[in-house]
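Module 6 notes. Inverse folding takes a fixed backbone as the condition and produces residue identities as the prediction. Think of it as a translation problem where the source language is geometry and the target language is the twenty amino acids. Below is one complete input and output pair. Work through it position by position during the lab.
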């Protein structure tokens, strides 16, 4: 998602916020594979991971490989990153103070580490008072 599309999405989310239930509105903005799964704790944690598990997204602006890097953690353990080719809009939103959440959308017992974990990323807007 490019920055222009993200801005339009954020405007739509802000307009919909008064209709949000439970005090906030979560909008699915991205479904992506998990990058770097094989280089972090993914293989060790694989037996414990469950579809639907919450994931923490943490910006890493000082990352030497990607200034827009977004680390993906499960219960405080590093699993990998949002793919570099797909992290521009979400990193822009996070840098503007928008809360981003993620969860495991799919787990596949594949040899290719790029196909093993699929995640969903949501932007969260508070409900207008």
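Target side of the pair, the amino acids:
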């Amino acid at each position: 998602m490019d920055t222009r599309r993200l801005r339009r999405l954020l405007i739509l989310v802000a307009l919909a916020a008064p209709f949000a239930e439970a005090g906030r509105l979560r909008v699915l903005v991205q479904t992506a594979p998990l990058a770097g799964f094989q280089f972090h704790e993914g293989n060790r944690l694989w037996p414990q991971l469950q579809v639907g598990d919450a994931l923490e997204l943490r910006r890493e602006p000082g990352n030497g490989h990607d200034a827009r890097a977004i680390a993906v953690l499960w219960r405080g353990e590093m699993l990998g990153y949002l793919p570099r080719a797909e992290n521009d809009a979400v990193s822009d939103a996070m840098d503007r103070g928008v809360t981003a959440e993620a969860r495991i959308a799919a787990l596949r017992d594949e040899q290719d580490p790029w196909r093993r974990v699929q995640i969903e990323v949501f932007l969260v807007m508070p409900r207008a008072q």
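Reference fact for the lab report: The CA atoms of residues 51 and 104 lie 5 Å apart.
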